[in-house]
Amino acid sequence: MPTSAERIRAKCNELANFLVAKNESYGDSALHPIEIFAKGRATDLIRVRLDDKLTRVRNAPAAFGEDVIRDLLGYLVLYELAMEDEGRGA
């Protein structure tokens, strides 16, 4: 049976692969938004996405077959990166 440390590393690697693939499919829009409709810093726009996902968790967690928990984890990683990009650290 894998240790907790091994399981944590495996789960983080899964999340990293998921996040990289999703980020590529969205054209890195979380960290570099195209600002057609929404304007603002990446951190502000990511917080809006986090709010939307948390609303989904509260209201309809199984809607559309999405894994909202994995999406939340991914957005939190992107948020940390955006904070670094803005020079504010995590």
Helix share of residues? 55-70%
The overall pLDDT, averaged over residues, is: 93
Give the SSE string. Answer: HHH
Can you count the beta strands? 0
Output the radius of gyration. Answer: 15 Å
Strand content: under 5%
Query: How far from one another are the termini?
Result: 34 Å
3D architecture notes:
There is one protein chain. The chain is mainly α and 90 residues long. It has one domain. The chain is built from 3 helices and no strands. The longest helix has 22 residues, at 4-25. The chain is globular. The relative contact order is 0.14.
Can you give me a brief rundown of this structure?
It contains three helices and no strands. It is mainly α and 90 residues long. The protein is globular, with a radius of gyration of 15 Å.
Key words describing this protein structure:
64% helix; 0% strand; mainly alpha; 90 residues
